[in-house]
């Protein structure tokens, strides 16, 4: 029987099948006359059609009636069901499923989620706390871990204790004021204020330009983490407007929002700090990003597939698993991805490896991607690896681009929901 692991973080819901297929899409849904469209297509309309795009249906998962007479959705559960069908469809309709959920899901929401999955149908064989899932491969080491996981509307901070072959979530805290969307809104307003002050131009008066800024923000933030000053260009009716984002300004801007998280980091300074892949922007916007580890995008789902026998054995009545006392120690453990894989030398796309030691041009046209190292002048995106960092030399398209914090093997570049792998390899 086919098995898959579904990780529910509404920044990027992720599913991986035991056969290796991986698919991810953000927790946005667009209600149309034809039906509900979820994922990147919906996010690309979120600031163009705010009245038709939903982004809180996982945060407020329930069967409370929605306002208005919507043809395809009575409540948030209907919208979540549409996205679940999309995710499982991309994973080949697995017959068995492990779900990885954060502490932000209460028991009532979890019960509703199980009902939705049974209606697809698929059999849920285990329910795992997502912070525990991310750290299962660390359980052999005696250590204390502080795991930070950023969602669209909040952050989950988990204290995890490892000892021998045992691991447990000791304590968890929800930071309800610290979400990805509120962070993006704060930074977008900062950019707007800079544009108004410099050019007397407000991009938020145009839905198209507001959408473009939100599309580019994730990539801009990661670039700020690599350099103290980050030049950006914003297309407008008045032509291209050039600004420089200063890292220290963004740190000062974010400091009030990070007060509670910063206090936890000081209080638990003896813990190993692990930021989930979805929390990269938080690690960039803290003043000590080098004192932490960044987990791989598929770390949690890979761990669940690797330790599936331990998870299923401990899953009695589908209780949420927050500890494992005897993890299967007979199998070799997955590599600890946070310890620094080698620097990537190539970008892998459709079976071909492209060298990154020289400028690499990527042409982006909606879902179509073409790569060339010969002609980069007209490329939508130009990348290069220098000093173990992935740097953007040029970007001329409003695509949704997510870059990893470092150019490590095994990381992915995401362009309009397509994944391009960073590898160490030979040309071609």
Written description of the protein model:
This protein has helices at residues 40-43, 76-90, 107-118, 130-135, 180-199, 207-226, 247-254, 259-267, 280-284, 299-306, 308-314; strands spanning 3-8, 13-17, 22-25, 29-31, 36-38, 53-54, 96-101, 123-129, 143-150, 155-163, 166-175, 229-236, 239-246, 272-275, 293-294, 320-321, 323-324, 346-349, 352-355, 360-365, 368-372, 381-386, 389-395, 401-402, 412-415, 418-423. It is α+β, with helices and mostly antiparallel strands and 428 residues long. Among the domains are: 3-130, Nucleotidyltransferase, domain 5 (2-Layer Sandwich); 180-245, Alpha-Beta Complex (Actin, Chain A, domain 4); 346-423. It has a six-stranded mixed beta sheet with strand order 3-2-1-7-8-16, sandwiched between helices. Strands 15-14-9-10-11-17 form a six-stranded mixed beta sheet, sandwiched between helices. The protein has a five-stranded antiparallel beta sheet with strand order 19-18-26-25-24. Strand 4 and strand 5 form a beta hairpin. The chain is globular. The relative contact order is 0.12. Residues 335-340 have low confidence and may be disordered.
């Amino acid at each position: 029987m086919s098995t898959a692991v579904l990780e529910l973080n509404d920044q990027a819901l992720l599913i991986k099948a035991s056969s290796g297929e991986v698919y991810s899409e953000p927790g946005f849904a667009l209600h149309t006359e034809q039906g509900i469209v979820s994922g990147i297509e919906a996010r690309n309309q979120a600031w163009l059609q705010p009245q038709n795009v939903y982004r809180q249906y996982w945060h407020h998962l329930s069967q409370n009636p929605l306002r208005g007479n919507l043809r395809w959705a009575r409540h948030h559960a209907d919208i979540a069901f549409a996205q679940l069908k999309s995710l499982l469809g991309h994973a080949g309709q697995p017959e068995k499923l492990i779900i990885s959920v954060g502490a932000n899901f209460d028991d009532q929401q979890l019960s509703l989620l199980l009902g939705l999955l049974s209606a697809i149908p698929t059999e849920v064989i285990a329910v795992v706390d997502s912070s525990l899932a991310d750290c299962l491969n660390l359980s052999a080491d005696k250590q204390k871990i502080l795991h930070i996981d950023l969602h669209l509307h909040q952050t989950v901070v988990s204290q995890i204790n490892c000892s021998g072959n045992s691991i447990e979530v000791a304590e968890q805290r929800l930071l309800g004021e610290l979400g990805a969307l509120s962070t993006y809104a704060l930074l977008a307003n900062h950019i707007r204020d800079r544009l108004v002050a410099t050019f007397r131009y407000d991009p938020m008066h145009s839905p198209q330009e507001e959408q473009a800024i939100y599309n580019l923000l994730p990539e801009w933030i990661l670039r700020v983490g690599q350099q103290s000053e980050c030049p950006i260009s914003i297309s407008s009716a008045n032509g291209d407007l050039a600004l420089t984002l200063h890292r220290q300004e963004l740190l000062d801007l974010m400091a009030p929002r990070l007060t509670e998280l910063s206090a936890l980091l000081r209080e638990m300074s003896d813990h190993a700090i692990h930021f989930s892949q979805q929390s990269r922007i938080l690690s960039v916007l803290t003043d000590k990003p080098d004192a932490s580890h960044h987990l791989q995008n598929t770390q949690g789902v890979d761990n669940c597939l690797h330790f599936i026998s331990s998870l299923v054995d401990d899953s009695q009545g589908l209780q949420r698993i927050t500890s494992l006392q005897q993890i299967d120690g007979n199998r070799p453990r997955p590599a600890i991805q946070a310890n620094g894989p080698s620097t990537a030398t190539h970008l892998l796309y459709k079976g071909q490896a492209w060298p990154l030691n020289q400028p690499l041009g990527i042409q982006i046209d909606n879902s179509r991607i073409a790569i060339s190292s010969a002609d980069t002048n007209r490329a939508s995106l130009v990348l290069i690896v220098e000093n173990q960092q992935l740097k953007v030399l040029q970007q001329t398209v409003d695509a949704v681009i997510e870059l990893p914090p470092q150019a490590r093997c095994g990381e992915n570049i995401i362009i309009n929901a397509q994944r391009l792998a960073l590898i160490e390899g030979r040309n071609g």
